[in-house]
Amino acid sequence: MPAEQNLNIVPFVSVENMMDLVLATGAETFLRELATYVEEDFRRWELFDKVARIASHSRDGVIELMPASDGQLYAFKYVNGHPKNTRSGRQTVTAFGVLSDVDSGYPLLLSEMTILTALRTAATSAIAAKYLAPKGAKTMALIGNGAQSEFQALAFKALLGIDNLRLYDLDPSATERCRNNLAGLGLTITACRSAEEAVEGAHIITTATADKRNATILTDNMIGPGVHINAVGGDSPGKTELHRDILLRSSIFVEYPPQTRVEGEIQQLPADYPVTEFWQVVTGQKTGRDSDGQITLFDSVGFATEDFSALRYIYDRLRGSNRFENLDLVADPDEPRDLFGMLLRRAAQPATSK
Questions:
Q1: Which of 235, 272, 292, 299 is catalytic?
Q2: pLDDT tens digits, residue range 288-333?
Q3: What residue numbers bound the domain in which 31 lies?
Q4: Domain final residue, candidates 259, 282, 302
Q5: Is 70 within 8 Å of 294 (Cβ atoms)?
Q6: Which residues, other chains included, contact 87 with Cβ-Cβ below 8 Å and sequence gap of 6+?
Q7: Exposure of 132 by Cβ count < 10 A (0-12 exposed, 13-18 middle, 19+ buried)?
Q8: pLDDT band for position 211 (50/70/90)?
Q9: Is 220 a catalytic residue?
């Protein structure tokens, strides 16, 4: 929290601020610290006011609002998902978020969340794997080597000790970029020619493609006993990366069922198909992995509490920092009921050049 924050002045973390904050902290340390906040809020799950994200779908993508509150703080994220954007040199996913004080309703923080979403998604994936992946897992297949891929790789290295990475993407240049970006960071990296080759010998399989056309990335014959599948993907109705038969063989763990049944892999299954809410595993109410041969699937669609955790972490991380800008975001009249008078007093002031 910035020292002695004026209620009308809101700290803003720009993209540049966020990059500097991550680099100053160290990417892996940042991911570990962020994961602590995310896991802590999973333990407090029942305290949260929760709702599935509010989505506005179009032919080309989706724009969503993701709100959550623990009764003291409120957060929301604005986020889009437009796979076609890469053809025009734009990001598939962009986001920003707000953290507010419930007591007053005043915003406490405005932050970019394009980078922060990639970090919180990766941190959440690694937390799930901590509970669900086979013990001693060291090799991960990463299918889909787009903007999320390096963050996933570093999170699994930082939290689980993954040191062997097998990459595959339909676009070989994406795989090459990912391999180059991760060079020298302590990972043994193999570029593979197919998804089948990538999953050979992998203890964890992460799918992170942007396809929304019911494309099947993993078929049943590719999945052996004992693996953990981290299905990230571009979540929306019509998005599936796993063949239905894989789901029927797996123990399935989700964040918030009402959202996952619409946007996740389990949209392929009946609405009452049994799944386990991940927070129940974190709190010890339900079992995660219970046998060596069990196939576990984290049907990750990203949920608003994770964004809440990320914004809460950034707000705390700003304490004693100068990696933010002050925004005059909230009107602050001398007399709270005299908002129009504030406008009149402004009109009476000498004009300033712009």
A1: 235
A2: 999 999 999 999 999 999 999 999 999 999 998 999 999 999 998 8
A3: 9-115+306-332
A4: 302
A5: no
A6: none
A7: buried
A8: low
A9: no
